[in-house]
Design a protein that fits this description.
alpha/beta; six-stranded mixed sheet; 7 helices; two-stranded parallel sheet; 222 residues; 28% strand; Rossmann fold
């Protein structure tokens, strides 16, 4: 009983200074991939930035609605690098991004952005890969302030899509949204508060946490 009282006291003391975020995830390993049909070779299409006039943006890949906001200039590069690194660590063989960028120039960057599924099929055929990963970012707001005090907290909103390179069918999709809030406004994610030492983190850190969360939810090979 004394132990629980002590824990409650600690939480109460943390409320004024703790920081949390709201997260949205769409799927939890909804399927498995047959290793007899799909190999671990994968084409990654660089992240596409999707700006919106309001607080909601439609995904150009699947059409779903996502929280939206300002997008920092380096957002697509940061997220693409994180995606490639995360997939490589999970055993996927990634087609070199330089070759993908060159192929996209041949397709036409604007055309690829407007018709991402068609672009995925063309890239899959060119590189003889059966899987394509495409992502979109809807918000990547940098923190304004320091780790101990901010004027505006960081926020990220992005989605991932695993596409069958032959048919263009979306095999799996997931999305992530997080904007840090004071712990007093959201105590449900106390684990993140502790993991982040009660600090206001950067957009890069939010993106890193979100990317790993989504990649951990990817379908397994069977």
């Amino acid at each position: 009983m004394k132990r629980w009282k002590a824990i409650c006291v600690v939480l109460v003391l943390l409320l004024p200074v703790g920081f949390m975020g709201g997260c949205a995830n769409e799927s939890k390993k909804p399927m498995t991939l047959s290793s007899s049909v799909y190999s671990n070779k994968l084409v990654v299409i660089p992240f596409q930035a999707v700006s919106a006039k309001g607080s909601i943006a439609a995904c150009p890949i699947c059409g779903g609605n996502n929280p939206a906001g300002p997008i920092a200039p380096d957002a697509t590069g940061v997220l693409t690098d994180m995606l490639v690194t995360g997939l490589s660590r999970r055993g996927f063989v990634i087609v070199p991004m330089g070759e993908v960028d060159e192929a996209l120039l041949g397709i036409g960057e604007k055309k690829a952005a407007a018709y991402p599924i068609d672009a995925a099929k063309k890239l899959a055929k060119k590189f003889k890969a059966k899987l394509v990963m495409a992502g979109a970012v809807f918000e990547y707001r940098s923190r304004e302030g320091s780790s101990i005090g901010v004027e505006k907290p960081a926020a990220v909103s992005f989605s991932l899509h695993l596409i069958d390179g032959e048919t263009g069918r979306i095999l799996w999709k997931d999305r992530y949204y997080e904007a840090q809030k004071p712990l007093s406004e959201d105590i449900t994610n106390i684990g993140k508060f502790i993991k982040r030492s009660g600090k206001w983190v950067t957009a890069r850190r939010l993106a890193y946490d979100g990317m790993n969360t989504l990649l951990d939810n990817m379908p397994d090979f069977q």
